[in-house]
Design goal:
Number of domains: 1
Distance between the termini: 19 Å
Number of strands: 5
Radius of gyration: 14 Å
Strand order of the largest sheet: 3-2-1-4-5
CATH superfamily: HUPs
Helix content: 25-40%
Oligomer: single chain
Length: about 150
């Protein structure tokens, strides 16, 4: 799977949304359920899009989020981080939020990392985006949506 992701990420070069200013502090990938030991197809798409955007602004942190409610299964965020590192994102650019269990808690955790009024690109499914944007606004952040 990683070889396919490397090819796809290298070939997707659409720019970040024009609305993003220079003050953008981070890119966020939302978690999604995984099969044991591997990212789901939807998670892989989010990962590809997040890395594609991060490559345009590699000075930004790539924030990966997603807990596991099963203590025997690694958090989704860790799967994202492992795959992102394998695909060339330096570990010092990764921020792993592996404890929030829902969108509201993820928004609060991102606020704790980036601070009040920070702009953040949110990469999640189009169906989840309205709820995610609401939670991030409620948390005092300025989310920019990238729905898949």
């Amino acid at each position: 799977m990683y070889d396919l992701l490397k090819v796809l990420v290298a070939n997707l070069m659409m720019p970040l949304p024009v609305s993003l200013g220079l003050g953008l502090p981070g890119l966020l990938l939302f978690g999604l359920a995984t099969a044991v030991g591997r990212l789901s197809d939807s998670s892989g798409m989010r990962l590809m899009e997040g890395i594609r955007l991060w490559r345009q602004r590699p000075e930004l942190p790539l924030i990966v989020s997603g807990a596991s409610r099963d203590p025997d299964i690694a958090p989704v965020a860790q799967g994202y981080a492992d795959a992102a590192a394998e695909l060339g994102v330096p570990e010092d650019r990764l921020v792993v939020l592996d404890t929030p269990t829902d969108t509201g808690r993820e928004a609060s955790a991102v606020h704790d990392v980036l601070g009040e009024g920070s702009q953040v690109v949110v990469v999640t499914s189009a169906s989840h985006m309205p709820r995610a944007i609401h939670h991030f606004q409620q948390a005092g952040l300025l989310p920019v949506s990238v729905g898949l």
